[in-house]
Amino acid sequence: MSARYRAGVIGMGQIGRHHVIGYRGVESVDVVAITEPNERVRTAAQQEFNIPTAYSDVREMLDRERLDFVSVCTWHLLHEPQTVAAAAYRPKAILCEKPMTVGLASADRMIRTCEDRGVRLVIGHQRRFFHSWTKARELIQEGVIGTPQMVTAKTGEGLLNCGTHVVDAIRYLLGDPETEWVMGAVERKTDRFEREVRIEDRCLGVIRFKTGAQALIQSDLTPEWSVDDYQVRGMDGVLETTSQAVRYVNGSTTGWVTVETGYDDAWVLQAQGLVSWVEGATGHRGEARQARQTVEILMALYQSARDHEVVRMPMQEQGYPIDLMWDEGKIPVVEPGAYDIRAFLAMEPDDRAAYGEMRRQGMRHKDIAEAMKRRHQ
Ligand SMILES: NC(=O)c1ccc[n+]([C@@H]2O[C@H](COP(=O)([O-])OP(=O)(O)OC[C@H]3O[C@@H](n4cnc5c(N)ncnc54)[C@H](O)[C@@H]3O)[C@@H](O)[C@H]2O)c1
């Protein structure tokens, strides 16, 4: 009889739900438990997904369930402590959400703890399982555009938030090259946070890889940032990819050649990858050692802005450069009033609906935060 695996999910918000759906798409995995402190959310999730046991406390779940897979689906600052706590129980693997963590020292502690306990650690850059991106990576490796020169991408809502997917995608498309240096510019005039982490208003970055390829990232600079597509210019051609298709052009093609790749649920493929790894496959596309390089690039973009210079790898700074710049008075707030662009996630349904309506009207996160405060006065 083939093995069956017991999975437990920590944090049943929007992404915890995707992890449950991912595990349920794999025949050999049973989601046996969830942990969620918010009673309304916990009860709703337990009923919807028919989960045998629901806890409000992580330790209780880890103590009582003998979990093979633990998903960490809470906000960023809980990723390290909950990964470390889960690793003590030696599950077969931990699947922790992106961004891996905030700061390089924290990423290294997560990796070291899991290695010491013999626990496989994967970070939720599930888009590595988009068929289109994998096809693009293969086409680039086959040489359809020659040696890659420059990748361009746009992102927004914070470099740590959506930007981590974008940096990870660039690395994946290029075959996961090592980084040579990074240069970044950061603007922070409003007191902006994302899931309780201080973040920038805008960022522009250049990444240089050891292969000679470079990448240009514009973050929160353009209104069309949410389109998740990439252009890779090579010595002999150009390739573009979205989440569903790839197209390329070179000297031998008569115009663009389009490859439709379709889409299978990346959350399911990510969970399937965990099982394969446990059953003997060599590694996982989302392995922490890949995510660590993405964290290093993100931190180096900030560090470059902090020091006004190119940051060469390996990066020396171990902390979170945005907080360090804040402490040093290098990014003074011009428009006072702290606000969190993901505050709506922690709201109850009525407030969340009001928040959503204001976003649909095109209001800035900062103005919405002030309107929400007035709503409760
Ligand atoms: N991979 C992706 O594409 C993707 C997309 C969105 C978010 N994320 C990441 O997923 C993580 C969670 O984001 P989200 O949007 O689901 O947030 P969310 O607010 O919807 O969900 C987080 C849940 O964690 C619960 N929680 C809080 N403290 C807890 C604790 N101590 N123990 C257990 N549960 C606790 C909250 O009550 C909430 O229900 C973030 O790090 C985010 O960056 C990943």
Task: Give the gist of this structure.
By secondary structure, this protein is an alpha/beta fold. Helices cover 38% and strands 25% of the residues. The structure holds nicotinamide-adenine-dinucleotide.
Q: C-alpha Rg, in Å?
A: 21 Å
CATH superfamily of the largest domain: Dihydrodipicolinate Reductase, domain 2
The CATH topology of the largest domain comes to Dihydrodipicolinate Reductase, domain 2
Strand order of the largest sheet: 16-15-14-13-7-12-11-8-17
Please indicate the percent range of residues in DSSP E strands (runs of 2 or more): 15-25%
- At the first level of CATH, what is the class of the largest domain? Alpha Beta
Which architecture of the largest domain per CATH? 2-Layer Sandwich
Largest sheet: 9 strands, mixed
Number of helical segments with 4 or more residues? 12
Q: How many distinct domains?
A: 3
Give the termini separation: 61 Å
**Structural category:** alpha/beta
* Unreliable residue runs: none
Order of SSEs, N→C? EHEHEHEHEHEHEHEEEEEEEEEHHEHEHH
**Helix proportion of residues, in percent?**
25-40%
Average pLDDT level:
96
Number of strands: 18
What is the molecular shape? Answer: globular
Bound ions, cofactors and other small molecules, one mention each: nicotinamide-adenine-dinucleotide
Question: What does this protein structure show overall?
Answer:
There is one protein chain. By secondary structure, the chain is α/β, with parallel strands linked by helices. The protein has three domains: 5-127 and 266-283, 3-Layer(aba) Sandwich (Rossmann fold), CATH 3.40.50; 128-260 and 295-307, 2-Layer Sandwich (Dihydrodipicolinate Reductase, domain 2), CATH 3.30.360; 347-377. The protein has twelve helices and 18 strands. The strands form three sheets. The chain has a nine-stranded mixed sheet with strand order 16-15-14-13-7-12-11-8-17. Strands 3-2-1-4-5-6 form a six-stranded parallel sheet, sandwiched between helices. Helix 5 (104-117) runs antiparallel to helix 9 (288-307) and helix 9 (288-307) packs parallel to helix 10 (321-327). The N and C termini lie far apart (61 Å). 45% of the residues are buried. The protein binds nicotinamide-adenine-dinucleotide (NAD). Residues 10-16, 35-38, 41, 58, 73-76, 78, 97-98, 124, 126, 161, 195, 345-346 line the site of nicotinamide-adenine-dinucleotide.
